[in-house]
Amino acid sequence: xxxxxxxxxxxxxxxxxxxxxxxxxxxxxxxxxxxxxxxxxxxxxxxxxxxxxxxxxxxxxxxxxxxxxxxxxxxxxxxxxxxxx
Length: 85
Ligand SMILES: [Zn+2]
What we know:
The protein is mainly alpha-helical. The protein is about 40% helix and about 5% strand. Strands 1-2 form a two-stranded antiparallel sheet. The longest helix has 23 residues, at about 40-60. The structure holds zinc ion (ZN). Zinc ion (ZN) binds next to α2. Zinc ion (ZN) binds near residues 11, 13 and 16.
């Protein structure tokens, strides 16, 4: 399946304007093959955003890429440095 088979430029029909998706790309319903409009298209984009948020959490943990705090880049104590006591 080519990307242009599922992705189409934004649609400006009244239904899409009413749902606030007139600037988002249109998607094709995988079952019927018809382009999604209005609230159906909005649901598609909402589900996509949810999926990406879930995937990001699964990959990075609940706090994101800095969840583990800063990575210490310096060595606490250089071997041999305090050995003159
Ligand atoms: Zn439309």
